[in-house]
């Protein structure tokens, strides 16, 4: 499923994978969130509910542009820089480009919707 992330500073597209967590995330759309920088590698925002993670690996390493769900905190994380393995990190999709544009924009109100 393709999604669009829109802010006052730009617009990006992404593709969700077929995981249970990605499908559960898609069921929340459209969604308004405020992304905040975390650890100089990602933008994070709390989600309105915890996502289903059935069948997900115990953890993942993130690459630039990955849309992820961090199960221990219940938040969305969009990586603009790669990061090593994190237990509880579930990759739910990938930006189609432009992840670097998220860097330095904090806080960043966005709307995420299905295309």
From TrEMBL:
Residues 5-112 form the Cyclophilin-like domain. It comes from the Bacteria. Pfam families: Cyclophil_like2. This is Cyclophilin-like domain-containing protein.
